[in-house]
Request: fold
Amino acid sequence: MNEFGILSLQYEPRINNIEKNLSTVKSLLESCKEQLDLVVLPEFFSTGVSHKGFIEYAENEENPHVLSFLSELAKENKTNILGGSIIEKEGDKFYNTSYVFDRLGNIIEKYRKIHLYSYFGGTENEVITKGDNEPKVVELDFAKIGIAICFDLRFPLHFNKLMKMGAEIITCPNAWCIPINSTFYDFELKKREMKAFAITRAVENLSYFVGSSFAGNIGSGLKSSADSIIVSPTGEILAKCDNNPCAIYSKIDMEILHNLRKVFPVKEID
Reply:
């Protein structure tokens, strides 16, 4: 057995209340008494969905309030952290960026979201600049992690590339949601949609999949479908949140994944 512990956090954000959201993250993480090797947070985890907040609370390594919090959290809990996403400012541009921290609190990678949510009424592209970088895979001390953010889920070639770059665990912080007064999307349908994406991306790439989302109202007239989930390479749902705040945990066995990939060499399939 080659087991490692994965934790995914889900909660209802307080819009632009950074300290309250960071406190919630800390409490949820500390409620887990199991072995921790990777913690995954939601997209926009410190602000919720707020164009005003995206601009006002944007930061980077030179202005690292939230990033410093994540660094300390990783060190205190001796775990790797995929820091959901924050709005990163570079010059006059804003990026939706996931940062990865090792157990010592060091930033070891970042990924700027490539596929912005500018459809079905989404307006992310009005504030955020599309990432011009390639998909990112980072090697942690127990596995290789591929990074995606929310709407990337609708682009299977993004995940195929992550897998061919060596990703064994795909992380997908998200704010999967519907407008509160939607007339074209049913809430339960949206939940089934995320579940289908998570299972499909895991199975087609023989990878573990870890999604972290919100619960409840998430800002800008949106309601989260609350779909934090951990899926095995064979499509088994190892852990899943309901509609409430929670922290879901699962052990994953990397030996199983490695053996599956020996039998079915998915990297060699075009």
